Amino acid sequence: MQDTQPKLVKEFSRFLSLEKSLSKNTLLAYAHDIALLHQYAEGTGNGKSLTSLTATDLKGFLIYLCDLGISATSQARILSGIKAFYKYLIIEEIIPVDPSQLLESPKLGRKLPVVLSVDEINAMMAAIDLSGPTGQRNKAIIEVLYGCGLRVSELNSLKISHIYKKEGFIRVFGKGNKERLVPIGNETLKQLFIFIDEIRVHLTPKKDKVDHVFISERGSVLSRQMIFIIVKNLAKAAGVKKQISPHTFRHSFATHLLEGGADLRAVQQMLGHASITTTEIYTHIDREYLRETILNFHPRNK
User: Fold this and answer.
1) pLDDT digits over 247-283, tens only?
2) Residue 111's pLDDT band (boundaries 50, 70, 90)?
3) What's the total number of domains in the chain?
4) Which pLDDT tens digit goes with each residue over 26-68?
5) In which domain, by residue range, is 144 found?
6) CATH classification of the domain holding 26
7) 68 and 134 both lie in a single domain
8) Would you call 136 exposed, middle or buried from its count of C-beta atoms within 10 A (0-12, 13-18, 19+)?
9) What pLDDT, on the 0 to 100 scale, is given for residue 292?
10) Quick check: is 110 in a domain?
11) For the chain, what percent of residues have pLDDT higher than 70?
12) Does residue 125 share a domain with residue 65?
């Protein structure tokens, strides 16, 4: 088992990379899931290999995850990796039966994401110190996150050649390297090009980062962690008490559009969601907002 497991995982990762065009982070997560399953199989002492585990063994694995205190959301994500692995083994005819086929994901409560109000976003914008070179960069970052609803990975990979200023669109590569065109408003474009034309022009990008928009003073692409720190520091400076991350601007982008009357399918396209079900969570936020409005302002509730 020990000899074949690393080879299986390596071949599985290669398959996902070539056939599914998954990101590096997703590939690492799947590899971690299989390693966790392998660790469990070894720990049970039954001497089974990954290719000989049964549905009963996998149910035991889910109980094991629960005992470790792993949340239902994380269990569901791990199970997704396990299912993908066994589907691969079936495709490659390494096993005759998929033991994960009848496994059910743990029931998840639908948790509504944190959303910033327009006033909170404006306060964060106002808290940016524009006296230094990083100030305009940070302002452009917040404008693009909120104005276009991008994921951090999409922001980091945004290229100057993919900004169509005249047409008012940016070209974005999302999950699975799927391409989409996202509208970009005038104010966001303005702040973006102030950074590009007045600040970035004085930076020396590394050879493979010449076309990337958001680079550091050392010429490399800003890390996800750096974007997170920028957002956290701005929230603190603006007095925003909510627990937020760069992704909060994406949630706010979608919620504010729907509150303003935007079509759900148009928002789905802009966010790059494969399924409209994913986008529908923002209609729940909208309904919560309406309910709060009634509770707070209707005379019968006072």
Assistant:
1) 999 999 999 999 888 899 999 999 998 888 888 888 8
2) low
3) 2
4) 888 888 888 888 888 776 646 678 888 888 888 888 888 876 7
5) 118-297
6) 1.10.150.130
7) no
8) buried
9) 73
10) no
11) 90
12) no
Burial of 49 (0-12, 13-18, 19+ CB in 10 A): middle
**Any domain includes 111:** no
Task: Confirm if 47 and 1 have CB atoms less than 8 A apart.
Answer: yes
Q: Calculate the dihedral angle through the C-alpha atoms of 203, 207, 213, 218, rounding to the nearest 10 degrees.
A: -40
Mark whether 85 and 122 lie in a shared domain.
Answer: no
Closest CA to 251 of 302, 286, 224: 286
Residues with catalytic annotation?
Answer: 151, 175, 247, 250, 273, 282
Residue 76 has pLDDT above 90, yes or no: no
Closest CA to 99 of 160, 161, 56: 56
Q: Which has the closest alpha carbon to 158: 172, 179, 140?
A: 172
Q: How far apart are CA 55 and CA 112, in angstroms?
A: 33
